[in-house]
Write a structure and sequence with these properties.
With 746 residues, the protein is α+β, with helices and mostly antiparallel strands. Helices cover 30% and strands 23% of the residues. A hairpin with a 2-residue loop joins strand 25 and strand 26 (615-626).
Amino acid sequence: MGKARTIARRSFLVGSVALAGGVAFGTYVVRKPHDNPLADQVADGEATFNPWVLVSSEAITLIVPHADTGQGAASMQAALIAEELDIEFGQFQISFGQPSAAYYNTAMASEAVPFMSTDKSFAAETMRSVMGAAIKVLGAQVTGGSSSTPDSFDKLRAAGASARETLKLAASQKSGVPVSELNTSNGAVQLPDRSELTYTTLAADAAKLEPVTDVPLRDPSRWRLVGQDMKRLDVVAKSTGTMDYGIDMYLDGMLNGTVRMNPRKGAPLNGYDATAAEAMKGVRKVLPITNGVAVLADNTWTAFQAADAIDYDWAPAAYPAEQDAHWDEVAASFVDDRLDSEWRNDGDVDVALVGAETLEVEYRAPYVAHQPMEPISAVAKVTDDRVDVWATHQMPRFAVDKIAAITGHNPAQIYFHNQYGGGSFGHRLEFENITATVEAANQMRGTPIKITFSREEDFAQDFTRQIGMSRSKGAVKDGKVIAHDLQIATVSSSRSQMGRLGQSLPGPDSQIVAGAWEQPYAIPNFRVRAYAVPELAPTSSWRSVGASSGGFFSDCALDELIHAAGADPLEERLRLMNHDVSRKVLETVGEMSNWGGALGPNRGRGVAFVLSFGVPVAEVVEVTNSDSGIKIDKVWVAADVGRVVDPINFDNLMKGGVIWGLGHAINSEITYSDGMAEQSNFYTHEGMRLNQCPEIFVKGLENGSAVKGIGEPPVPPAAPALANAIFAATGQRIREMPFNKHIDFV
């Protein structure tokens, strides 16, 4: 990362200072001097401020540093600031701001590493402390892990409150009216005589003041925005086709291009012959880049055609060339020397299994692609004294580091302009589009370069979800589940991803068993072990990360044990549940779906529960076994996030997560042949088809003590709920995704 003092010169404001005729406010309390990029400018223990709120004589600008890839993060952040600042939607503009250590993700620092039960040589709380400190020291500005709302909820409201009270103080000094007699509403300070001073007219006066920081947050009974249905800032543009995404970026004099990189991911390009491509009309340049070439032309389509005309000599993959070898490596990993960690060991599983009625099952989850609707792209302009990059990214400060390494510029000379993204699902945590574009632009300094990946190249270069397998052995007695020994082996997406950042994972990978070990079930004898598969094809974070497979492995195996015990799937889960908030979620989804009601022939219901990202989610799926295949009729889903910030967006994210989880469970996998992904577009890696989409009913609960995010938690229960429903309707257990390899769907 760039040195703190470099970032300080570019991105921070000390106290309350004039900025382009305005004033910026924020909250960034530093507990240790080395945590603060302004430590050399303030005394130990003093508070410093980052520019969350900018008020000028012309406008109110809210800085929303979490990337918005369709999940509504921009509107959420703006609403939290506006709630305390007393401004309404329509009275402000937003900016994603420049990357800054000030925007380190506090939720990931405090909550990303779960408490664990392990016999390894470190303690859970120490691990959390180390990871939290690392995130803080690195200034890790990260959007992901369903952490945007938890990260923003308190500090952005506090930023708004600080700005509000400082503007009131400015109004008091300007008018002579005591602060205690002033109110705020609709972007203005209200005076007792019913006149008002707008925030914009107070900007210059407020810039002279020390910000007011000791401001209590308002009681929820006074909230105007939080908890109410909101019209997202982007809804009109998206509904009318006028939204500008990263792929829509245009600069005068820009060349359009594409790339072709080794489809055996990470392997180099031995050589190429671009004679035919360079002779094509409209082609300007064919440039070497890491592991491939960039083709620049007058338009993107010409660049696509020229890239196809090049003769490439690709090096072989570093991982097994054929898919069967990948599965063989996973299956061979259930051995002691590949034991990554033991995350739970309640009771005595080995003793409980002796002489008991046991059930042994194996489940599989394949590689899957991210496949956002907007293919990855970037625009870059490199000159001798600065670099500008326009793209969508979830870790922009890491992107700045990557750019600096390519161009040789100081990070302070690099300006990263984050854009609205048309989907991500974890795809925009990687850097291939940015580094390829900057490599090309660095060879053509002064000329803006836009690189757009074709859909096929997007698939070929995608870092997929981890491949994995579980082996489970359990016991039942007297109609109850008494033992469960769950072993999970996956490649470590965390190590793969961090390795590309030049870092290493400090300890076991919690994502191998995410969605499994932390489930709040009081099974008397319960053990969960994680086995690390040596890296195969490179992988990355995929929506809900390890829980997307861990929840499938864990819940389906539990459902099989419950059936073996002859117990009701919902009632036995409730009996085992030892967490009141989670219990209420399960009870709610049972009530929503009228669990236990008569269904008729060829129909079935399945229930699943997965706690992930600190959010308990329960889903019930109802299916019909028709002559044409399985038809998903209805889904009921309940979750508890502690506080629902925007009910409309909550409903959308819940439904989207269900559709995402079901569609990929039914239809999607990435397989390798000759080291290359065999699936290259939506028609070979389908999500859920419109005719397959069920009616979905959503319920949000607010019993939890902390505010949580909901972008990812609805995904993990979808696959097991569907698998359990198929079993209820057909008697067939499906233990491998995608399900369409084993059963037909309408």
